[in-house]
Amino acid sequence: MSEYLNKVLLEIEQKNSTEPEFMQAVREVFATILPVLKAHPEYEQNAILERMVEPERVITFRVPWVDDNGKIQVNRGYRVQFSSLIGPYKGGLRFHPSVNQSIMKFLGFEQIFKNALTGLPIGGAKGGSDFDPKGKSDNEIMHFCQSFMNELYRHIGQDVDVPAGDIGVGAREVGYLFGQYKKIRGAYEGGVLTGKDIVYGGSLARKEATGYGLVYFMREMLKTHGNNLSDKTVTISGSGNVAIYAAEKAFQYGAKVVAMSDSNGCIYDEAGIDLDLIKQIKEVQRGRIKEYLNSRPNAQYFERFGEDSPIWQIKTDIALPCATQNELTLNSAKTLVENGVIAVGEGANMPCTQEATNYLLEKGVLVAPAKAANAGGVATSAIEMSQNSMRYYYTFVEVDSKLEQIMVNIYNACRKAADEYGCSGNYVAGANIASFHKLAKAMIAQGVV
Ligand code: NDP
């Protein structure tokens, strides 16, 4: 490790010692950019690392709301505006009880690099709350979203900061957030949030974009290595937005998705998952994945105990972690390798622990890193913003083909950067190097601000 990199890492570790997820995300980037720093001494002279790891702004706020029993509840809201180097802040909102500043900062940090890879003019941000939407009525969700927006509105705008969905925030929540923003501002600023419903300014194919994009990236990566998705067995953790549409596209390419999960456990259906049934349970009934067995009694259900999800015990050619951070540990990576996995594609943000990623790479498994492989969601959000500005709608096919081209471009950028810096086939390094370069150049060009 270079002296400069080491010094900065030590300083950041001291300043952020209570933020393990954020430090993990920083370390993962630092572990791959040494050759770039050596080739570009101007990055050290311009204090690029020190500036890049410090968010431009971290906002926290109180979110009070009244539940259905008339009781006052208080949650904490966050918006981390990490970087506006290449466009307005952009990144999702997560509603989950585990949300804290460390998780918000890790997600915001990742988002800067991801957004740079899309080739579109968007900066990086993340936000959310420790609010748990599970078991809440529609009315409670609406009141919470309205209270959240009562504060957030003063920090966002279609040229300032454009939030979207993430875990626990889908079209329903974005709708309530948008309604309240419009009410407060007294103006229809369609591009202030993305992930909107189609009937009031959303984009066709946004819902599908992250999952489809992940599979487009996987297809390109397999192609380089003389392989494809046809007839491959696929396991996908999670059963939310990313997981469902990754499964849909994998099926379209002739793969067989045999397992999906939620935080309680996973289902295994040897004949191939019935995706319409999953959609019904998760998107319509907002139920638990275990209910799958009510209609498909031949499938199996494995309860989750502890940090390792049972889904990674299932033999598969391709594993797509699409639930949450650090869900695929070294133990799980070892089992996947023993069972002959050929590729892992990160649909979630930082789903593999660093030890798991290193192990998979050492064993020659192809790894599609989150920053690149799940960038299709935010890229399509940027396409939604363009449509809002033009006051125009593209067709599904138009958006999907733009998404596909963006994913091919991202893959090529990662591959080229990895080749140039002597780590061919390591797309984790390639993604970090390609995006770091772009951000560093923009930072130097804009001066010390
Ligand atoms: P959803 O809320 O739609 O679905 C999340 C899924 O992951 C659910 O099945 C949920 O199960 C499971 N999950 C959530 N938290 C945990 C946990 N702590 N342990 C185990 N399982 C968990 O979210 P998305 O599909 O939108 O997001 C999934 C991942 O993809 C996240 O990492 C997100 O940051 C990332 N991502 C999302 C994008 C998007 O466009 N939506 C874009 C890029 C990345 P349960 O119902 O039991 O909680």
Describe this structure in words.
- The chain is of the alpha/beta class and 449 residues long.
- Helices cover 48% and strands 15% of the residues.
- The protein is built from 18 helices and twelve strands.
- It has helices at 3-15, 20-30, 34-39, 41-45, 48-52, 101-117, 138-152, 171-185, 206-224, 241-252, 275-284, 292-295, 330-338, 354-362, 370-373, 376-390, 396-420, 427-446, and strands at 57-66, 72-83, 89-95, 124-129, 161-164, 233-237, 256-262, 265-268, 300-303, 318-321, 343-345, 366-368.
- The chain has a seven-stranded mixed β-sheet with strand order 9-8-7-6-10-11-12, sandwiched between helices.
- It is globular, with a radius of gyration of 21 Å.
- The model has no long low-confidence stretch (mean pLDDT 97).
- Bound molecules: NADPH dihydro-nicotinamide-adenine-dinucleotide phosphate.
- Residues 165-168, 210, 238-243, 262-264, 322-324, 327, 347-349, 374, 377 line the site of NADPH dihydro-nicotinamide-adenine-dinucleotide phosphate.
